[in-house]
Structure formats: C-alpha cells, structure tokens
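Could you please consider the sequence and fold following this short note?
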Amino acid sequence: MLAPPAIRPLAGADRDAALAVINTAARWYREFLPPAEYHDPEMTPAAWEAEARRLTWYGAFAGEALVGVMGLEYVRDVALLRHAYVLPEHQRHGVGARLREHLEPQIPAGIRIIVGTYAANYKAGRALEKAGYRRAPDSEAILRAYYAIPEDRLRSSVVYEKHRAATSW
C-alpha cells in the first residue's frame, strides 16, 4: 500500500514540474479529441502563469516528486476545481481523489462546486460521479457563465457539479 500523497499549494518554483505533470497527463486527450482540438503542449509556461493569477494551484507529492495538480478558483458565487491532472503511472491510486478531498473542505458551505471536463473523458466523469458530483443538464450555460475557454473546447465539454451543504449547528 502506497502512502497517500502530501498536498500543498504550489509556488512559482513548482511551475516546470506542474507543467510536466499537466502536459504528460493531457496526452491521453489524443484518444478522443479531434486533431484540431488537441494541443501538445496542453499548457505553456505563460498559460500557467496566467492561470496562477486567477486560481490557487495545489500539488500532490509522492515523496519529493510532484505527481498530480489541481487548481481552485472562485468565480462570483461558485468554486471551480480546474486543471486536474495526474501522471499516468500514478492514476488509479487515489491521487486525484486526495487532491479533490483536500480542496473541497476549503470551499465555504453552501457554495456550488463546478468541474468542467471533456464529454468524452470517461475517466474524469466516473471519478466525479463516484465522488458525488452530478452532470449538469445545462453545461453550456454554466461554461459560458464561469469559464473563459475557446469555443471548440466549450462545445466538447460538460460540467459536473456538487453543492456543499450548509452546516447546521
């Protein structure tokens, strides 16, 4: 049994390792994205920096090695879990779940959590449903309201959501 990965916020010094995780894990998109929509690299250093101005990056570490990343962004009345990537050799070992489980309690009760992913990304869909997320019936409207993504990506994406219940004492 592997020890659970350690989770911590990422800093600028972690950028290159984070990009390696993102760009390696995103190569699986070749299996379902049309060639015109597939990008390698998935994320550039400039894009990572731009995202870092809007969200907080978190990393999952196995020992000293960064093996997974996820971002948390607040947009108006929702929290977005974004850019969830795990190195292929660490997938199916709970790394993504550990990141999500670390971030969800940080989100205030009563806030809707939204996760966008490609409709054809069955791996993400299954993991989110297992974690209590449900596919939103109005994905396009939600994506247009809370995300700034290219039109081609918007058309091939869906949204999963979960409501954090307000606590009662």
